Automatic annotation (TrEMBL):
This is Fe2OG dioxygenase domain-containing protein. Residues 164-184 are annotated as: Disordered. Residues 166-184 have a biased composition (Basic and acidic residues).
Amino acid sequence: MGPEIISEVAIDQTLWDAIQEDQSRARHDVIPHGERHIARASDKIVQALGASDFAVSLRASVPDRNLSQSVYATYLYYREGDWVPLHVDDWNIFEFSCLVCLERTRGSSRPTATYFLLGRENLMALDLNVREAVWFHGVHIPHGRTPLSEGESVVLLNLGFSSSSRTDRPHEEKNHPEATDAGT
Ligand SMILES: [Fe+2]
């Protein structure tokens, strides 16, 4: 499965407003994670997202994988100079990832993007607008984000799903230092 762009996430306005309030609160309680900051969503939001129609539709899009009912939800805050190197996500945390854009401010320079390595010289760059999202197999598709320039900021919601059908899971399952990976 390649990255799938979702032009308008089907999250109802009540939940959307609650997510925005939660990420705004959580931004005062962030922890550094590489060259950007992250915060966990509140339990209430995690539960609401896991039970949402949006999560139902994401699970249904990969019927052969039996994606988890529970979700992993983290806010990713990027400001000028923040970035994430090319990486794959950790099987031990989540396998599939949906990055939902919650806030976006573009600066005067060329905007930066989340990018995906789809083949040896095939890069896909995505600069999401608010309410746009990208859904991808994060343990397989290398992805990252280029450093934000002056005046730029981005807030993303990373919605992660694990899978109970890990037939193609790599054999070397080690708890490496990236085990706290939280998406891009
Ligand atoms: Fe990631």
